[in-house]
Amino acid sequence: MRNVTTETLTQTFLDYCGPDTSPRLRFLLEHLSNHLHTFVRETGLTHDEWRKAIELLTKAGEITDDERNEFVLFSDVLGVSSLVDMVNSRPEATSSSVLGPFHILGAPDLAFGGDLKQDNEGATVVVRGAVRDPVGNPISGAEIEIWQTADNGLYSNQDPGQPEYNLRARLQASHNGGYAFTTVRPAPYTVPDDGPVGELLHATGRHPWRPSHLHFIVMAPGYRTLVTEVFPSDDPYLDQDAVFGVRSDLIMDYVEQTDHDLVPDEFEAKSKLTSPYYSVDFDFVLSAETAE
Ligand code: BEZ
Ligand code: FE
């Protein structure tokens, strides 16, 4: 093509893709180039603006390492991570929500009713619920992974003052799909805003706060793995999550309780419950792996 114009460039780009390009890749590139090129035409993007965008991406590359991925954070604060979650969620299952950068492999097992709180400061929370399929049948033996911040809003891998696997565990649902543990109430926290993502947030008058949450991965053979988080209804940042992770079915209540007799004897921390303590009931629904 010797005479590329603003109108022919997108098709010219697509014509450059060879016959071995997979149909899915061609489809994605067709839409990507269409939207990107339309964006440039419609906004009349200037050289300075494009240079600034490339500069931000360059800085993202410089700050990214094994512990921190600024590109994922861009995807999070631009809402792309959450959109990918939403378009891949099944309506009959619990909504998925961002994995975030603080998950680590190798969390220790915790028995039914076990105590995740241990020596962590803060009020005790008794968390329980069940894992079910979309028609309500229990999924016995489902594996549940949980991780969360401490009372100071930091994950164990951000805070040298915490043991490596503090507030992280793997649980197994019982024969009737039930799970139960005690923990501490996590705190709201900020996503890292000392890099190029922070520059974008500051330039647009946005804050970096996320509402407090408990992260879960729930998996069982024959079912789609669910990566999600659960948020308290009274969190001040519930309606302004910096990474758009909140969905209405992921909101729970911390119910204030004073009656220790409501907690079954099988709870490891029954004898050291705080007064008050809080209870949370939350069920997970997994969709079949084969669901379209
Ligand atoms: C998190 O929930 O851990 C998280 C998610 C996205 C960006 C930063 C943190
Ligand atoms: Fe988190």
Give a description of the structure:
This protein is an alpha/beta fold and 292 residues long. It folds into 2 domains: 1-45, no CATH class; 80-285, Protocatechuate 3,4-Dioxygenase, subunit A (Sandwich), CATH 2.60.130.10. Helices cover 24% and strands 20% of the residues. The protein has helices at 9-16, 23-43, 47-63, 70-77, 80-87, 196-203; strands spanning 114-115, 124-132, 143-147, 168-172, 178-184, 189-190, 209-210, 214-219, 226-232, 251-252, 255-257, 277-281, 284-285. The strands form 3 sheets. Strands 1, 2, 5, 11, 12 and 13 form a 6-stranded mixed β-sheet that branches. Strands 4-3-8-9-10 form a 5-stranded mixed β-sheet, with no helix packed on it. A two-stranded antiparallel ribbon has the order 6-7. Helix 1 packs antiparallel against helix 2. The longest helix is centred in the N-terminal third of the chain and has 21 residues, at 23-43. The chain is globular, with a radius of gyration of 23 Å. The two termini are 41 Å apart. The model has no long low-confidence stretch (mean pLDDT 96). The structure holds benzoic acid and fe (iii) ion. Residues 100, 102, 213, 215 line the site of fe (iii) ion (FE).
